[in-house]
Amino acid sequence: MKSRAAVTVGDREIELRTVAVPDRPPRGGALLRVTANGLCGSDYDLYSGHLREASPGLVPLPLVSGHEMVGVLERVDPEAAEKWAVSPGDRVVVDPAVRCGQCLDCRSTTDNRCRDLLRYSTMPLSRGSGLWGGNAEYMELLPGTLVVPVPDALSDEDAALYNPLGNAIHWLVTVAAVRPGDSVLILGAGQRGFACSAVAHNAGAARVIVTGLERDQVKAPLLARFGADTLLDAESADTVAQVMDLTGGAGVDVVVDTVPGTATSTRDGLACLRRGGRMVVAGIKSGAMDGLDINAITLRELVVRGVFGSSTFGVRRAVQMLTEARYPFAELHSHRFALEDLDEALRVLGGEVPGERPLHLTIVP
């Protein structure tokens, strides 16, 4: 059997290839028929070359990208069927992080600190079948993979939001420990900003502030339905001044920085925290952070934590939260593309196509 796969071979270079599908899944693993794969900012960073520039060695090319997979289990090794409690024909989402389950970090935590962590969408084509990403018709699943069954009530596109939502749950609930009454500042009004807004609101935050660019201001009505109280324009006005004005100079309890690339948002986020506040920094940044007063972290007793991905709890809870349908996640879907149009989809995602307003994009093989 063969699978079409969109292979990233270089910066802004994607080739549609035919790749042989293994006759049987790996021991303890499975073969997934991909029905949808969501795209996020890190996919554009890989496509544009920014990710490899910022983190050399993280993504060896060529490879099959895609880390927000929804699909049907076509073949399941008996060991995996028992361990994962699944059967062939089950529709599932796939956590992109593959943990060894044996190291000290795996035994002591459920997030992504595994010393031998593997990630789908970052493994090279030269490894085994090469089908290690969601931008293909089929992909292999390794032992240690977390798969979560998808209820019939969820469409493939809705289910594909498990990744940004699972991230938000991990960042805000597990890491930042948002509590009822907290004030939360979310830097960035993309799909991760929407997901973080919903999670903060769902956790009982008393005030949710989101920042975006001037072009993001049209999202304000929809963001309000995801629990946001205010959408600030961080492009035409000073973020720190606006937040301090809203909070009477006190600052906020929690900041989540979802902005990719620039470290300026991180600097501003730190300045917006109240004494003893907590900050979560997500995404890969480039360059140094100019103007950071490092002593402010010590003197104001701030807590700053970097995050990279989600957690077992985050992924499972995301599927539950999508099924509960308290927030209009289906309205985030802005674009659907075929596998052969991945290059165009990534240019739309990156804001390179005039007139397009991307939010959540899905590849349907």
Automatic annotation (TrEMBL):
SMART domains: PKS_ER. Residues 10-353 form the Enoyl reductase (ER) domain. Pfam families: ADH_N, ADH_zinc_N. Keywords: Metal-binding, Oxidoreductase, Zinc. It comes from the Bacteria. The keyword Metal-binding applies. The keyword Disulfide bond does not apply. GO terms for molecular function: metal ion binding; oxidoreductase activity. Its cofactor is Zn(2+). This is Enoyl reductase (ER) domain-containing protein. It comes from Actinophytocola xinjiangensis.
